């Protein structure tokens, strides 16, 4: 993935971080699983961009200890790649809700290796964010989260046979473990809140959203600068047409450039 043509280099930091991490993976860690590398690169890139924007540490955004972030780098990426993206300087502070989600994931991991412990912590921390879980992990589509769950938490994934939203499904499993009933409807088909559990989870990835918003802001700034240079004697209507043309990516009307 690369920043879009015409964008300022600092406008899409998540995409730039992702590209750098995956380039390092290809050169330095080609034997590491490419899908897992993609997953870690996505969430590291997004969390790094968030940490930079919010003035927080990477640990605040990931839910990992510094040594765990360093271990991910050692397994999947070039030496120093994650360090340039802001290795955490403090310990993550987990709330009780996050801990219960993490424990659920750890208890159902496939036991392939340490990556599942790291992913359990990351997924639990990112489940505290407001968007769809796949978006808050920085993934490109919901299907990638489904693949992640099937690969690393297969028992949990198999239980989601009705294709609930992943965050909703994880919380339902927690409630069931505690003996609670989430819904009093006789069946899902008869429930007025069907879309809350089973609704569409499509949409733009977080990196795509950031890139689109950055491009829109850059285009608006370019249009404002260009129209400010239109001579003062030009009519108000001509100025309006100039702004519309520039905002849509076209050239200003002939004779008014």
TrEMBL record:
InterPro entries according to UniProt: NifQ (IPR006975)
Record-level Gene Ontology MF annotations: molybdenum ion binding
Domain of life: Bacteria
GO biological process: nitrogen fixation
Protein name (database record): NifQ family protein
């Amino acid at each position: 993935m690369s920043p879009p043509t015409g964008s300022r280099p600092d406008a899409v930091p998540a995409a730039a971080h992702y590209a750098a991490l995956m380039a390092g993976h290809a050169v330095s860690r080609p034997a590491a699983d490419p899908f897992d590398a993609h997953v870690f690169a996505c969430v590291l890139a997004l969390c790094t961009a968030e940490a930079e924007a919010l003035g927080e540490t990477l640990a605040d955004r990931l839910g990992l200890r510094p040594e765990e972030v360093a271990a991910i780098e050692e397994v999947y990426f070039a030496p120093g790649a994650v360090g340039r993206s802001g290795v955490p300087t403090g310990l993550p502070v987990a709330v009780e809700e996050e801990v219960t989600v993490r424990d659920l994931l750890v208890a159902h991991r496939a036991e392939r290796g340490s990556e599942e412990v790291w992913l359990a912590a990351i997924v639990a921390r990112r489940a505290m964010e407001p968007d769809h879980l796949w978006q808050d992990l920085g993934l490109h589509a919901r299907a990638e989260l489904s693949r992640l769950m099937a690969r690393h938490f297969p028992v949990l994934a198999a239980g989601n046979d009705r294709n609930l939203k992943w965050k909703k499904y994880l919380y339902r499993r927690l409630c069931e473990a505690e003996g609670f009933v989430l819904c009093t409807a006789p069946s899902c088909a008869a429930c007025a809140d069907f879309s809350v559990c089973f609704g569409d989870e499509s949409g733009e990835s977080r990196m795509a959203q950031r890139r689109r918003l950055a491009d829109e802001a850059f285009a608006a700034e370019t249009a404002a600068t260009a129209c400010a240079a239109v001579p003062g004697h030009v009519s108000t209507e001509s100025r309006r047409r100039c702004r519309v043309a520039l905002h849509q990516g076209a050239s200003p009307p002939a004779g008014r450039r």
